[in-house]
Write the structure tokens for this entry.
Amino acid sequence: MAEWNEKPYRADQIFTWVYHQKTVDFDAMTNLSKSLRQHLKDYFHMGFPRIAQKTVSADGTIKYLFQLEDGENIEAVWIPDNRRKTLCISTQVGCRLGCSFCLTATLGLKRNLTPSEILGQYMAVNRDLPETEQVTNVVVMGMGEPLDNYDSLVAALRLMVSPEGLRISNRRITLSTSGLVDKIKKFQAENIMVNLAVSLNATEDATRSKIMPIDKKYPIAVLLDCLRDYPLKRKRRLTFEYVLLRGTNDSHEDAVRLARLLKGIPCKVNLIPFNRFEGADYEAPSEEALLDFQNYLISKNYTVFIRKPRGADILGACGQLAAQSLPQAIPQ
Ligand code: SF4
């Protein structure tokens, strides 16, 4: 607005139209002059990512396949759980981190999403859903490593939490990372204060570096040192995600090591039984191993949840996103 010699409050008015009124039509911005509206139309366009397909799981989870303007596809997953409606959003088309248990990794990195494409998933899903089903929580955990698309991620998160933007409480947003230590440190300084979840997935570097190549750059000790210093608001904790792979990282000894490693870090642990996909080299843990793992950690006073696989029948569960068309999808 300054560049166009407009008053600064015009920017506030435009923000209100876009993020509070959710208008996609410059002509609807009736408190702006006709010439400013025309100017905006000449330079910008507004819209939502196109919902190409919607697939509904037997458990009520909905997977949205979005087609972006350049034809690339991404996915977001809406997960209802009583009053909580969580939306898992993507930050990249594909991912370059190559975790061996993740279907997204097989795509490689095609490109980063822009801030509007990240936010657009949230706005488009809410627009598609009835008032009673609107998203209450956001997890940035879909396709891609969010911190590998740092600038767009930060811009999108600022717009999500800002009072002029989408006004989502930072307590209701969780950023998930595979552990890019330098970027975690940089992110601390942004002071956005969303929840942080870290995919640990192993208790020894020999195993972790095999399933998550990023471990070679940031080994477990370096990652945990950085997290010990991570600033947390009162009563907030970090989350450690641990995908259990049968015979790889699900032994009792792993549980013992994990309890030792996390000592002193205010945290909770999410155990995620591996969600199979075609061509995967891994199996889910046995029920026995899963419960033993959980019980041991509980006995050491950790808060531990077993993450129910949601949307696994539509390849919508953790590690299963690859922006593929599915036969049971509803074309939009
Ligand atoms: S688990 Fe996350 S970081 Fe690893 S390859 Fe998949 S999308 Fe990328």
About this structure: The chain has two domains: 1-46, 48-331.
